[in-house]
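Reference record
================
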Amino acid sequence: MASSAVALEDVPSVDMMTELLRRFKCSSKPDKRLVLIGPPGSGKGTQSPVIKDEYCLCHLATGDMLRSAVAAKTPLGIKAKEAMDKGELVSDDLVVGIIDQAMKKPSCEKGFILDGFPRTVVQAEKLDEMLEKQGTKIDKVLNFAIDDSILEERITGRWIHPASGRSYHTKFAPPKVHGFDDVTGEPLIQRKDDTAQVLKSRLEAFHKQTEPVIDYYAKKGVLAQLHAEKPPKEVTVEVQKVLSS
């Protein structure tokens, strides 16, 4: 305990007050346990910080959680590293265990947003079992529904200036000079993942694995369909309607 007391003493007063005010504001918010489902480029990454701040939830991205559990050498992290080192997939039980641990953090007190999990029906069932043991359940599953052809236009049109991270889009936010950064004039690049071919295989995997998960949650009556092809602000309004009902 002593070490955390020292850490608190070192926290600037402004940060401490900000955090206290945040917790006070959050105390009146309803608890929410959410799952976000959607193909790459559907806008989950844009909406999740908005939802997280509005409802005081913690954002649980399974990839990040696995990496931090491995780095922290937690018992589950050690097991996960063994699987990764052998080139094996980390088992569903391990991932659910890591989610279980992450949910106990103070930042997850009001609930969580799960992103990138569950990808299969088996994972959804294991997640439900774990939550049931804690006396909770998934409140809402937001399905970022969008046509594959719109995604292709969104994703294959993305170009990046690698040094600054500035991003452009051939249709929605083109650079002043095609192929070159507005500020430095340096050439833009396309991410390896942003090609039509890579997108096609990722979408095939998504549809095959995750469509049954959407059906699973629909049968439970917790699925909400979003029109993810709309502009981000309109999607945010849809999300708020769904979560306030």
Summary: The longest helix spans residues 196-219. The chain has ten helices and seven strands. Residues 159 and 190 are 5 Å apart (CA to CA).
